[in-house]
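Sequence only, no structure available. Ideas?
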Amino acid sequence: MQELIKKKHEIIDIFLKNGILISSELFKEIGDEEHINRIFEVLKSKQTENLAVIDTDLSNLIQETKRQETEAKVTQQNVKILQSYKEEPKKRDPQDFVDYFNNRYKALEKILKQRQELKNTVSINKIVNKREKESAAIIGIVSGKQITKNGNLILLLEDPTGQRRVLVNKNKPTLFNEAKDIVLDEVIGVAGVNVDTITFANNIIWPDTPTNKELKKAEHETYALFLSDLHVGSAKFLPEDFEKFLKWINCEIGNEHQKHIAKNVEYIFIAGDLVDGCGIYPEQDRELITKDIHQQYKECAELLKQIPKHIPLIICPGNHDAVRISEPQPQLSKDFAKPMYEMNNAIMVSNPSLVNINSSGSFSGFDVLMYHGYSFDYFVAEVDSLRSQGGYDRADLIMKFLLKRRHLAASHSSTLYVPDTKKDPLVIEKVPDFFLSGHIHKTATANYRNTTLICGSCWQSKTLFQEKVGHNPEPSRVPIINLQTRDIKILKFGQ
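Reply:
I predicted one. Tokens follow.
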């Protein structure tokens, strides 16, 4: 209550400085605690000397803010958070890692057993001592991988009952080439023939996504757009480009078709790295224009506040944000990002998270998987096929790779993580309609088994670090999807 009274007195002071007196009757109108903060912000930014009829104009302003708040709340009712990680603080011990991998195995085993080839799997301990030649199917975590002297591939699979060597013969080129992309710690199924202490693979089955997944389409024309990697605070941040974006989303620039799209945008997703952070990489301070993390988030909020208030902003953190780097990352901290929480249309989620949008009585809506993409670096470095087909330039291939494994960071060392003893939050248990990522600063889009893959762009020019590692960002691109047709456009707001 005291804070409300303080705000009201500050509002009076603003008017007095502009030579304007406010009536007591009108003063009562701004006693609504729900929207007074917004009114205060609007008043500070308005040229109050231009308010010809103060009673009328201020009253209209109050009504407008109430209307915007109502619209924002109505729209947000159409945003349902299905999965957003909330950690219970506890001391970790080695057993937590054991439980974590057991939970991963069980979750992916359940998915794999839905495949016809793996309906009759057996546990490894039931075949380990059998000498006779027989067909069998097993499911296990890949705990070892090597090429033999003869050029064949040996995998070591592990389930809760034991270990088994699996040989993939080089004379089966299709199977062999697929198997070369296998990474440690992923969970796969193998159908083959047991001979003594080894299983000769005839087929390798990944959890993957169903081939018959429905391609959902909205009942009415509406749009969602995807941002990532703003990096506010960096000297390389591109304010002019972002200003163009803000003008477009407010229908101030663009041709008639582009303005039509802007007018019908109902959802904006931001996939991490809202700010550049501090101490993220060596000598980063040389490339920071804002070196205080609190100020970075304040500046970021000031930019995002210019987006129409009726559009919800679904925001997850990235590796540059002021949260722990270990995944899953919790939602942005209020201690650092308080200005972000003061926006009525901001919806904070963890990294990763699963969000449902645009549902109605007759339509189940779209499930959107958000993952910043910190594990991408590892897989580009370790998987030959990803590297040879474009690496960082082909984020869509990396995202397909992860969907095939139904895991966002399958290998132990692909990302830092916190072992959850109840479930592995990085398992993709529910196949999304949209898979949104960022991190690599280059836009890519694709469709994989009716899941739309979108990697966001960035709003930062090339840094010294990116120059050293050979990254070539394409900033200021905005992927926009028509939810009614599933068509994707990419608008460019820079060079």
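Residues 2-76 form one domain.
Hope that gets you unstuck.
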